[in-house]
């Protein structure tokens, strides 16, 4: 295997030139008895195995492929800091590591992070020796706890139902970044389509005595300058809202949509008395999501969502996309089949996936990985990690919906339990406090509390049965009709208030020749598959009060074999025929 895998820049919406990819071969060791810290493994350079980062030890791509759970694992890599970066701050970034990460540099403890699905970093400057090779050691602690956000990771020693082999350790890119001590930490970008403007909220790391910092922002579209401006900054935070409609921008402000995924490039440059301290490349999309009269509107026009459930698993590498090409292939296959978006299920997806969704015009529902127990610890862990997910993914125009909960997982008594209901209300309002512009679905599937969209899951097999159940909207949303094993649309104490309605899981059709399972009876051939797919999908599309659907699912995942593609991305049916059925309902209504 190549020395470096996943070579692309890992954070494309906030990109700098000075960085070093640490993916590739590392030393590795299991620590079943948790003896490593006591025995000083953080000083070792001779761990007893090799692993290919960023693939977890459970995967074939890692070179280990051991599926037995181990709660403590260690990584070691020798790292040189390139001489051209001498004197700069050295930041160690992890795009994802599950679940508790501890870092030592040259035997000195450098920091700890908890959470399996968010990016995080450590400033390791004070521990680096620029004159020689540095010993970087990482310990990952994981568990099988149901109180820990884990998504589709199993918590027993074998796969069951729709839960799969666990993910332990580093599962996304690891990299170094080299910065001036005063630099741009982040920029929150908020488009305002109605007023043809965009707001930037800047956060700086401001160190030292600089009093004359200037922050320049330059916006371009298709290589042509649209707007540039400068701010004098003397503190850690600043903001600016600017109009894109000007004499410079002679054409209409270009909006982002699936049909026309227009993106504006933007460059942020920080100066101290004319000397450049930092330069960041980014982009944004002018896109608005709103709700009106039971419809979801994109840029003030109702849109019919045709989504695919996408769990983001690969045969050789599980949750980690094996390559940039693999990411692009999944998106292109989704669009080829006539879907306009995905519900990223139980996974916080790789930043490169969101970048390509932005570029290609794929709508995305961003969903949190569930925990499966309700406790004070579960509430705290879930809340902290989810809010960081929202902050980190906020700028992506492709994300149009936040989905923190699914099917009452982690809040199994939400139908009647007031504490669990209040938890989902709290997450709803906290999400809105960070992002007021996107709808939030707090319990996708059933038993909704304060959701902006009412979503229903139902794996009924044929259209006539679906229409018999769902033809009378008021009986469904009024809890007079149960569905999907006696579930109801609303939790007790909550009433439907006119929200849009989407069937956000259905289908799941599998073939009889496959090992594993799907939903309902298995089909024998392509004709049976397409007849059933058309029957249920066309029934959903025939009901005017339903404004979208999400079919289960894009690919097989381990024992769940109900994908439109196999796990290695081979089509099971003629994809153009899926597209033809999907076209029966226009996207804009």
Kindly state the number of beta strands: 29
Q: What is the number of domains? A: 3
- Under CATH, the topology of the largest domain can be stated as TIM Barrel
CATH homology-level superfamily of the largest domain? Glycosidases
Give the structural class.
Answer: alpha+beta
Helical amount: 10-25%
CATH architecture of the largest domain: Alpha-Beta Barrel
Largest sheet: 7 strands, parallel
Q: What is the topology, as strand order, of the major beta sheet?
A: 26-25-24-23-29-28-27
User: What form results from the Cα inertia axes?
Assistant: globular
CATH C-level of the largest domain = Alpha Beta
Tell me the span between the first and last alpha carbons.
49 Å
GO molecular function, one term: hydrolase activity, hydrolyzing O-glycosyl compounds
Organism: Fictibacillus solisalsi
Domain Glycosyl hydrolases family 2 sugar binding: 21-140
Protein name: Glycosyl hydrolases family 2
Question: Could you write a compact summary of the structure shown?
Answer:
The protein contains 8 helices and 29 strands.
């Amino acid at each position: 295997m190549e020395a470096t895998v996943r070579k692309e820049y890992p954070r494309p919406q906030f990109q700098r030139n000075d960085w070093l990819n640490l993916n590739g071969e590392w030393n590795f060791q299991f620590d079943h008895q948790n003896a490593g810290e006591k025995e000083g493994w953080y000083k070792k350079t001779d761990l007893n195995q090799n692993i290919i980062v960023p693939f977890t030890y459970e995967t074939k791509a890692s070179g280990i492929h051991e599926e037995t759970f181990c709660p403590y694992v260690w990584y070691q890599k020798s790292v040189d800091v390139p001489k051209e970066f001498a004197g700069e701050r050295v930041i160690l970034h992890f795009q994802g590591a599950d679940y508790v990460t501890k870092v030592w540099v040259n035997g000195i403890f450098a920091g700890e992070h908890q959470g399996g699905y968010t990016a995080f970093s450590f400033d390791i400057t004070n521990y680096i020796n620029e004159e020689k090779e540095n010993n970087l050691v990482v310990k990952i602690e994981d568990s099988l706890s149901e109180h820990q956000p884990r998504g589709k990771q199993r918590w027993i020693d074998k796969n069951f139902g729709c839960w799969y082999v666990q993910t332990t350790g580093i599962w996304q890119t690891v990299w170094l970044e080299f910065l001036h001590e005063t630099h741009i930490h982040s920029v929150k970008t908020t488009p305002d389509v109605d007023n043809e403007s965009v707001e930037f909220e800047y956060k700086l790391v401001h160190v030292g005595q600089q009093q004359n910092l200037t922050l320049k922002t330059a916006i371009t579209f298709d290589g042509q300058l649209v707007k540039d401006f400068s701010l004098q900054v003397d503190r850690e935070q600043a903001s600016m809202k600017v109009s894109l409609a000007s004499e410079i921008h002679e054409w209409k402000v270009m909006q982002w949509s699936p049909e026309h995924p227009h993106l504006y490039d933007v460059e942020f440059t920080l100066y101290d008395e004319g000397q450049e301290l930092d330069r960041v490349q980014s982009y944004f999309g002018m896109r608005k999501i709103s709700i009106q009269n039971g419809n979801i509107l994109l840029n003030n026009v109702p849109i019919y969502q045709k989504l695919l459930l996408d769990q983001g698993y690969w045969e050789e590498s599980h949750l980690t996309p094996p390559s940039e090409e693999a990411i692009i292939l999944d998106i292109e296959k989704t669009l080829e089949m006539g879907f306009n978006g995905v519900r990223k299920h139980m996974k916080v997806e790789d930043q490169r996936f969101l970048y390509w969704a932005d570029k290609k015009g794929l709508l995305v529902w961003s969903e949190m990985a569930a925990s499966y127990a309700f406790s004070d610890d579960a509430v705290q862990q879930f809340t902290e990690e989810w809010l960081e997910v929202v902050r980190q993914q906020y700028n992506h125009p492709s994300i149009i919906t936040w989905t923190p909960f699914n099917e009452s997982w982690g809040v199994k008594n939400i139908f009647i339990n007031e504490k669990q209901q209040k938890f989902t209300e709290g997450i709803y309002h906290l999400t809105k406090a960070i992002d007021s512009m996107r709808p939030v679905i707090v319990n996708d599937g059933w038993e909704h509390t304060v959701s902006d969209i009412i979503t229903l899951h139902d794996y009924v097999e044929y259209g006539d049965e679906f229409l018999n159940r769902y033809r009378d909207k008021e009986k469904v949303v009024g809890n007079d009709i149960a569905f999907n094993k006696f579930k109801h649309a609303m939790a007790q104490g909550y009433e439907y208030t006119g929200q849009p309605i989407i069937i956000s899981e259905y289908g799941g059709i599998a073939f009889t020749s496959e090992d594993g399972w799907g939903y309902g009876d298995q089909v024998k051939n392509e004709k049976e598959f397409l007849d059933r797919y058309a029957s249920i999908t066309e029934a959903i599309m025939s009901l005017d009060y339903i404004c979208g659907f999400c079919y289960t699912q894009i690919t097989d995942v381990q024992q769940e074999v109900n994908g439109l593609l196999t796990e290695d991305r081979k089509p099971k049916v003629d994809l153009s025929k899926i597209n033809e059925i999907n076209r029966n309902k226009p996207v804009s209504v």
